[in-house]
User: Fold this.
Amino acid sequence: MSAITTDLLTRFDVPGPRYTSYPTADRFVEAFTAEQYVQALEQRRDGPAALARPLSLYVHIPFCQSLCYYCACNKIITRHHERSAPYLGYLSREIELHARHLGEGQAVSQLHLGGGTPTFFSDAELAELMALLRRHFSLVPGGEYSIEVDPRTVNAERLQTLAQLGFNRLSFGVQDFDPQVQKAVHRVQPAEQVFALVEEARRIGFESINVDLIYGLPRQTPESFDRTLAQMAQLRPDRVALYAYAHLPERFKPQRRILSADLPGAANKVTMLARSLAALKDAGYVYVGMDHFALPDDALAVAKRQGRLHRNFQGYSTQPDCDLIGLGVSAIGNVGASYSQNAKTLQEYEDALDQGQLPIVRGLAVTRDDLLRRAVIMALMCQGALSYESIELAHLIDFKTYFAKELAALAVMQEQGLVTLNDAGIQVTDTGWFFVRGVAMVFDKYLQADQARARFSKII
Assistant:
């Protein structure tokens, strides 16, 4: 692994998209309607994709019992668990509407429950949701069925229930094991509780266990995060997601409860990242890309080695590129040559479904150029390499002519040791892999035309 210098960090520590899609969600427009989305669903139903490619499903459950101050997710803070029952009813309507336009029984190879806190739902409600999904879709054997878990909301019995419902992957939100940091972000969960849950999940037989960490939180120091990393190495989950905290209190109201004076400075944040990379490598983890690490025998690391890595709105995935159906408040979907997003408020979401309509409020019909650039960006983000010929054959262009300006920009990155260019294509270097977002940004037409990048989190 090449050294990541302060100069490189300074040069490329700029706001940029995470490229879980291209074009990115900030480019969606309200001119895209529910009628256009229905057309995309019906085109899939009547076309060859319905049989050739399984679906991916994402279900957004927005409720949380407690507010985490760092959180930028779309959530509803409430201690009233009775609010989840009506929401489940509306999810049922939305699922039925999708089945009406898609056709019943389409294969699903990937399911993810996110939030919010999906485990805000009771066991009975989760069982009802899974029964609804199975009634209208076919969850294929060997698929990835995952759920985000707040350790404070589950015990050994609940983990057993999740397994019985068909979930085979768990993602625990930990963020930091340090009690002072946990208190500063209003998310107190003893390390012993997390260790016990992970041990039980292994005993039950979950195929993959992920743990989320965040660096750059209030009260964190390089030394305190070293201790968290040491505990993580001892815990040894199959996957680790390491995120940089983006402090944007002007956009996310909960973050206003975090004192800027408590945040680690830029130098300490860089130190935490550098030490994290070294600690996870020493613990035997493979750097998959972006924020993702996995043990060598985990499916994600295997997919990286074999060039089968893919990327969608849930991050890196082993599942082939497929249409994504987003269900619930604010959920994003990708069907055919279109992106769509549901209403972000509960009232607007419910109002649309009360009228018998899918709750789409914005989206995008992608152009030929969008599809071309998406292929380039995803090749770089997932494989770290790109063959000119493969792009030329798929999109009927001359790569060097079409992307002359972009290749000129990459020539500068080649001098900086981030990429290697030759007559056949582009290769991201070991060092460049840590800045792959910056490499991908070169091909983002919208970003190049719009220099107002403050809407994005920073690369580091």
Summary: DSSP finds 18 helices and 19 strands in the chain. The first strand starts at residue 55 and ends at 61. The mean pLDDT is 92.
